[in-house]
């Protein structure tokens, strides 16, 4: 998997998330922008009241975001497996394993952690439990 492959997977977030009522409801108090990066390919995700408003692939000149989740494309591929192995099953676990890192203002991430984690897990096909 490459950074462009990760961007293509993330481009599907609006259809995966916005069509899932329970997940949108869970994120109804979250509006903001965050960055997901794979192999130096940035993807900007804009959320408005739990709905994915936009997903754009960079590079960007000066795009604002509150927090970022960065990992190698190979790690994202392992994360999105139907049943990921331990350490790749969760964004926080990937950070503990040392294959991902969180940056920026982590308060909005932590305040909406379950929502953000489920948004990033949506490409697995198990959304909104």
Could you explain how this protein is built, in words?
There is one protein chain. This protein has 129 residues and is an alpha+beta fold. The protein has a single domain (3-124), classed as Nonspecific Lipid-transfer Protein, Chain A (2-Layer Sandwich). The protein has helices at 3-10, 13-18, 21-26, 73-79, 91-97, 107-111, 113-121; strands at residues 32-38, 41-48, 51-57, 67-71, 100-104. It has a 5-stranded mixed sheet. It is globular, with a radius of gyration of 13 Å. It starts with a helix and ends in an 8-residue tail after the last helix.
List its salient traits.
single chain, 129 residues, alpha+beta, Nonspecific Lipid-transfer Protein, Chain A, five-stranded mixed beta sheet, globular, SCP2 domain-containing protein
User: Which fold does the CATH topology refer to?
Assistant: Nonspecific Lipid-transfer Protein, Chain A
- Strand ordering within the main sheet: 3-2-1-4-5
Name given to the CATH architecture: 2-Layer Sandwich
Helix and strand succession?
HHHEEEEHHEHH
Average pLDDT number? 94
Largest β-sheet summary: 5 strands, mixed
Distance between the termini: 27 Å
What's the CATH H-level superfamily name?
A: SCP2 sterol-binding domain
Radius of gyration: 13 Å
* CATH class category: Alpha Beta
Backbone structural class: alpha+beta
The parts where pLDDT drops under 50 for at least 5 residues are: none
Strand content: 15-25%
- Helical percentage: 25-40%
What number of structural domains do the residues give?
1
Total helical segments: 7
